């Protein structure tokens, strides 16, 4: 279950990292989140919580484009379902 969710999240995060209209700091956070989700050495809930905190912080960035914010919110809701 959580592996499928991580895969969907990674696809969305990959899309954000490749989008040049998204500021570099946000693309960097998306890339870092992708790497964290891919690590199998931590519990899925720990990985989800760590990525949620990173993405929650950048989702409030005033420079983030609306479409990227929406994608991040999609990832956050997907990860929230794993955490609970």
UniProtKB/TrEMBL annotation:
<dbReference type="Pfam" id="PF03685">
    <property type="entry name" value="UPF0147"/>
</dbReference>
<dbReference type="InterPro" id="IPR005354">
    <property type="entry name" value="UPF0147"/>
</dbReference>
<protein>
    <recommendedName>
        <fullName>UPF0147 protein Metbo_0113</fullName>
    </recommendedName>
</protein>
<dbReference type="InterPro" id="IPR023130">
    <property type="entry name" value="Ta0600-like_sf"/>
</dbReference>
<comment type="similarity">
    <text>Belongs to the UPF0147 family.</text>
</comment>
């Amino acid at each position: 279950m959580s592996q499928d969710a991580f895969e969907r999240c990674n696809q969305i995060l990959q899309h954000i990292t490749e989008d040049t209209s998204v500021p570099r700091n946000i693309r960097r956070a998306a890339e870092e989140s992708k790497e964290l989700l891919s690590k199998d050495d931590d519990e899925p809930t720990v990985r989800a919580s760590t990525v949620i905190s990173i993405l929650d912080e950048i989702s409030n960035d005033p420079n983030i484009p609306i479409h990227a914010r929406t994608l991040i919110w999609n990832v956050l809701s997907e990860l929230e379902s794993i955490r609970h």
